[in-house]
Amino acid sequence: MSARKPSNHTTTRTKTLAAKTPKADRRQFLIAAVIASAGIIAQEATADTRDGVELKPNPKHQLFRVRVELDVKGNVDIASNPLVSRKISAKLPITSNATFDYEERFRFADDQGSKYSAGDYVTCAERYYHKASVESSLNKTTFKSELRESVRQAIVRRETMPEVIYSVDDYFTRDELDLLRLPASSVGLDSLLPSEKVTIGSKYRPDRESLASVLNLTSADVSDIEAEVVSLDESEAKIQFKGQIDGSVDGVPTVVRAVGKLTFDRQLGTCTWLAMALHETRDIGIAEPGFDVAATIRLLRKPTTMSMGLSQDLEDVDVMGDIPADRMFVDLQSDYIGFATLMNRQWRMMTDVPGAAMMRMTRDDRSVAQCDFRPLPSLEAGKQWTLEAFAEDVKRTLGDQLVEIVEAEERVSATDLRVLRVSATGSVEGVPIQWVLMHFSDDAGRRMLATFTLEEENMKRFAGSDLQLADSMRLIERSAKAAKEVADDESQPKSTRIADAISNDSPGNEVQSASDLK
Fold it and tell me: Can you tell which superkingdom this protein's organism belongs to (predicted)?
């Protein structure tokens, strides 16, 4: 049977339509061309991802906007006295919700910026915190903390881990430092990327140094973290990872179990998203309690060319030099005694109750020294203690433990306080001890005693902390709550003698090691 010839009517109709819609034909042709091109690109992309691709950060991106949400729930482990035993004596429930929004700019040495290449370890960054706040509950007591305006611009140094953050214009309080100490570092995010070409299903193990960089650990000693590329196309790569890290933070052992997802934008050449669930168990330290907590962290990072908070002019930072020692102080305060001081960050306020406060200096989770503070009753108007009278009272205080008064001096501090300082040596239970006692007073008659106690072998580590205290001590107003409690405590008559101000019943005066003795 022969093929049927189309009728003239049909042919005429087709020609008529073609004559009326030439643009439609051209449009269809272009659409077909685009579809064909897309197919070719898709085939090339598929071949590209099948043969393996490198996931390398784009070195041109050095300014980022970062947003972080951190939720924590678990228990804080308390020891009755960690100097004697790290055994848990109490578990306190804790919940915490923190939010961060900041700009971050990588910094390099003057001759290094143009030479920066993908994979280089970034040791310095500038940050401007648009927001950094936390609301937490510890043992059913709610706390809120927010970064002050004066410390929103900061420098991050990462020569050693965990990263060190200091403010450009002011000094952080201890609460602010704790707020900014995150379990994941946006600077180190690219360290989680594979070093070799990968395809979908590729598995690899991030090295321990990279994990310490990302998780903000001092060390990652043992790790079985494994990562897998679960999605890969021309626009992005998605990576999942899980496992356990045994490491440490400032000498305190910690175990981190992590499950996370990482997104690498291939067009931008940067990691833009991290979602991670952590279960961390940290031992009790000399200066900090331990904890057993579950945390979730969500981190969004985007490269940008415009800074809203950071200055367009680079901050003057010696990237290759040491961290400036004068920026590494922390603002410590006692609400009950009513003082504030700038001290090296190795010092922490451990006790603050009516009638007593105590701070301790630790290094690598070892006690170096401690300082006890006591308020003293005001003297009669117009009267002041003499240096000689103070030295004699120190002798009576130390008694048979005293070997020698090494130094006695009087000065006016940078904050206009009158300071009497006596340094003495002695022995307690056969251990050589150094004491430094300081009497502070102002024109209004307020007085306070500070007593440093340390083993003589720790004098080098002590590094003139007493002089730093003397120069930076400020007497401040107590809060209304603290003032009422202190008023009740001070309603009982008290002696003006230094020896009588040192009570063995004080909660801050536990004798547990040579650095606690006085």
Answer: Bacteria
